[in-house]
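#data-curation
PF: Archiving a pair of folding outputs for the training set. Convention for this channel: one message per protein, sequence first, structure tokens after, nothing in between. First:
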Amino acid sequence: MVIDQFEELYLLADTDTERAVVDALISAVDNPAGDNPIRVVATLRADFFHRPLADHRLGPLIRSATLAVAVPDAHRLARAIEQPAANVDSSSNPA
């Protein structure tokens, strides 16, 4: 599961909704009896990183599996956009 802009949970949701979403995420990820374990990839602005870390249930999960990604320089950003685009066969994409 990919959650983009996870900080929106803390910006837009009330406390009950926030709690319900966190409960659902923890249940989905931390289900040892589950046949299909779920992995969560969430993007989160650095200035909101403290919010999920402060949650006594979510914090340990985040601390154990966090990957910090720095902003790419202009060359790497261009390559990340241009290289996959160059690999697409334009004849197979209807206009």
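PF: Second:
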Amino acid sequence: MGRIINSRERETEILDCLIESYIQESKPISSAYLQKRYSLPYSSATIRNVMVSLEDRGLISHVHTSSGRVPTQEGFRRYVGRLMDEDITKGYPVASNLSLIAESGIEEAIHHTLDILAQESGYTSLVAFTEKSSGLGGEEKVFMQGTRFIFNQPEFGDIMRLRNLFYALEVRISELQDLLLRSFDERVRILIGDEIGLDEIEDCSLVVSGARKQDVTFSLGLLGPMRMNYSKASSCLYTIKNQLEKIIEDFV
């Protein structure tokens, strides 16, 4: 006899299915779509009722031009919270070998690392680092790669969103640098929407992980739409962070 699923478990299952579908499809998700795609053991009417409940709790919202729903910021937070209970930092199969660039100098190695991270994840990559000795000038620095991938995200077809994003990356880059260093975590930390603290990118998310090696502290970040593939972004970032940590260790 199968396990009886209570209403809260059913809501969680349907919310997760809706968010994962929205991440892939970038369009409002209907009850009929969920039932067909995931072969859910519930009727379309039951799924619709659950979606109404999720909407009442502020976890999804109704798009008036469509019968489907999209996740809200709070919905994404609930979803990411459950992901963080799993091992989303498991090894990611990075195609490029970062050890081959280790002899090019620390800043050049960081630029290459960022480009690989952006290519592997499909999001804009950033790094902020600080070093106490004179080897890196004794100051904080920030680098960025992969802004070209912004144009692959449907959200930024909206010219106002695109303009705001580039404003944040150009004019408020020092604040992003401070944010990366303040958000330092040797595992993975995910900032969603207004948790980032910059109005221009309050509809984005930032995944962060860093490391300390002797006098060097660095924090890698991936910036993308709130509709990020959080599992892929987190495991990719964490894997490449560990490789960069080994490269930096050779320099210090």
